[in-house]
């Protein structure tokens, strides 16, 4: 029989464990079909998602869940609500549960070595999706599936060249930049790629006059753009690191009595359906696509990793670029 003291200690432990699971919004799902590997045992995948900050992320989550179900895997899914500590807790939970494979989209670039060493010690392979990390030991993860964010930044700059030409813009280009979450790979690398082209080819006529994070959210884009327009009313270009921030910024541009897509030319990254709607209305001038439908590729990779096969270190997704005049034609085919 448990003493009162031991009973209370056990109760506190259970409550603490439940609290961690609640923070990460963890849920388990599985399919009725049986994906056999290594003697017919169903593969269990632990997936730690960044959060639900944007339309892109919603589509990415849906793709992962549907693909896991189609593959017949047991999926243990957690939503970190854009907090690294929640993701780390989720990964440790997956290690304790002895899942076959762990995959996650890291909130930020750094700070993962300790928990990934724990996964390696437990002999659980880790796959990065969408976002990369900086680590002292590359063997802590087996592969990365996602976009080349630096190249997306370069493509956004080259797209802006076309947008300026089509608009007949002459004179100085005063750019406002809406950055993604501070410390996140897409925020760092999309800014880097854009600056690379700007410095090499437009040093004399382009200038980023103001730049701040909108945290990849529509509300953040709206709030920060309102502040940009107060401090720099002569902005004539907006470069947004994702569509949701651009869509929020459009609200502030219109509230200031300006016309998005005309008074302020807009280039963004992602290619979600709402972004294409805004393009078809003339409010966004160009979008660099970042494909969120990583689920099927991830499930193929999970099986190879679980079976002990050698896999590619980096797997890129296929993406396109879209200018305003292509929006109406492309909109009906948008899957996300």
From TrEMBL:
Per the UniProt entry, the signal peptide is 1-24
Q: Which domain of life is it from?
A: Bacteria
User: Entry's Pfam families?
Assistant: Peripla_BP_4
- Keyword Signal present in the record's keywords: the answer is yes
Q: Identify the Gene3D superfamilies for this entry.
A: 3.40.50.2300
Tell me which InterPro entries the record gives: Peripla_BP_I, SBP_2_dom, TAT_signal
Molecular-function annotations in GO: carbohydrate binding
Indicate where this protein is primarily found. Answer: other
Q: Where in the cell is it found?
A: Cell envelope
Q: Where is the Periplasmic binding protein domain?
A: 51-308
What keywords were assigned to this record?
A: Signal
User: One cellular component GO annotation, for this chain's record?
Assistant: cell envelope
Family indicated by similarity: Belongs to the bacterial solute-binding protein 2 family.
Q: What is this protein called?
A: ABC transporter substrate-binding protein
In which organism is this protein found? Answer: Streptomyces liliiviolaceus
Classification of source organism: Bacteria, Bacillati, Actinomycetota, Actinomycetes, Kitasatosporales
């Amino acid at each position: 029989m448990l003493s009162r003291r031991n009973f209370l200690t056990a109760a506190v432990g259970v409550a603490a464990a439940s609290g961690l699971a609640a923070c990460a919004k963890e849920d388990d799902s599985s399919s009725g079909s049986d994906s056999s590997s290594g003697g017919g045992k169903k593969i269990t995948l632990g997936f730690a998602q960044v959060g639900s900050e944007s339309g892109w992320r919603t589509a990415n989550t849906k793709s992962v869940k549907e693909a896991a179900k189609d593959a017949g895997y047991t999926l243990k899914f957690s939503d970190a609500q854009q907090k690294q500590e929640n993701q780390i807790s989720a990964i440790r939970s997956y290690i304790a549960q002895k899942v076959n494979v762990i995959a996650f989209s890291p909130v930020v670039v750094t700070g993962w070595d300790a928990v990934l060493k724990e996964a390696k010690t437990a002999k659980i392979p880790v796959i990065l999706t969408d976002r990369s990390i900086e680590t002292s030991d590359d063997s802590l993860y087996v592969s990365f599936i996602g976009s080349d964010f630096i190249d997306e930044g370069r493509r956004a700059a080259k797209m802006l060249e076309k947008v300026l030409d089509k608009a007949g813009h002459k004179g100085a280009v005063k750019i406002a930049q809406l950055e993604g979450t501070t410390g996140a790979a897409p925020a760092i690398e999309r800014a880097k790629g854009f600056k690379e082209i700007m410095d090499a080819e437009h040093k004399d006529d382009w200038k980023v006059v103001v730049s701040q994070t909108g945290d990849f959210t529509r509300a953040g884009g709206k709030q920060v753009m309102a502040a940009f327009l107060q401090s720099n009313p002569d902005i004539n270009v907006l470069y947004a690191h994702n569509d949701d921030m651009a869509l929020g910024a459009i609200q502030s541009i219109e509230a200031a009595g300006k016309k998005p897509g005309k008074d302020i030319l807009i280039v963004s990254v992602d290619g979600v359906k709402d972004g294409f709607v805004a393009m078809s209305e003339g409010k966004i001038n160009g979008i660099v696509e970042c494909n969120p439908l990583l689920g099927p590729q991830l499930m193929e990779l999970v099986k190879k990793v679980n079976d002990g096969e050698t896999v590619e270190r980096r797997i890129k997704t296929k993406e396109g670029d879209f200018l305003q005049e292509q929006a109406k034609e492309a909109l009906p085919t948008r899957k996300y």
